[in-house]
Amino acid sequence: MNITIGHKVSYRQQCCIANAADTSCHTDGMASLVRALRRERGLTLEELGSRTGLTKSYLSKVEREHSTPSVSVAMRIAGALDVDVSRLFTNDAHESRVVVDRGADDWDDGKFHALSTEMLGKIMTPFLASPSTEFAEHKSSHEGQEFVFVHRGSIELQCGQDDDVVSFELNEGDSAYLDATRTHRIRRTSAAPALVLIVAAT
Question: Where do transmembrane segments lie in this chain (predicted)?
């Protein structure tokens, strides 16, 4: 695979060739963890909603495993619950100097697979994504920055809102870096499944 290094893009493109944090997380056990953490803090769904900007009905769907959140939404929920986002993916997260992932298991199309979930206090949060052909229910934005690299397939990125929406197609070998506070969403455009690496820094 040939990758061109040093290709320059405008600031507008830098903002709009955005992150891929718009498909859903690989959330085995996330529903029960979110519910337990919310109740542990004495928060109602309405109160969690006011902290995250998400509706009570959507959060209820997440807790009942009827909806799976994007990585951006998971980060907002984690922030509202005052926990490391890794806590939403596993009960085994702990302080560690090195965490090794031995090859990700297969996961459903339209899911995220969180990496290095056993390490708490990460500055960077890495994910593998297999985006679906449909845009996520919610446009995403969160504090920090993100890097995205398309390892396989092609994806469409939409960035912005209202009358300021720009779409870009990223193909195999393309990458982008952005201010993640800009709203964005993603879908797969290739016929075959796409595989994307996302690294969020907050």
Answer: none
CATH classification of the domain holding 131: 2.60.120.10
Number of domains in the chain: 1
Per-residue pLDDT of 68-118, as tens digits, reads 787 788 888 988 998 888 778 766 655 566 777 776 555 555 577 778 877
CB-based contact 91:118 (threshold 8 Å): no
**pTM, rounded to two decimals:** 0.65
Picking from 49-63, 94-108, 151-165, which range would have the lowest pLDDT averaged per residue? 94-108
pLDDT above 50: residue 2:
no
Question: Which residues share a beta bridge with 149?
Answer: 175, 197
| 3 within domain boundaries | no
45 in a structural domain? yes
Selection from 140, 131, 138, 137 nearest residue 193 by Cα: 131
Residue with the two structure tokens 């890495």: 126
Q: Which domain holds residue 181?
A: 11-98+107-201
Nearest to 30 by CA among 104, 110, 87: 87
pLDDT of residue 110: 56
Is residue 2, in this structure, part of any structural domain at all?
no
Q: Tokens 């507008």 sit at which residue?
A: 12
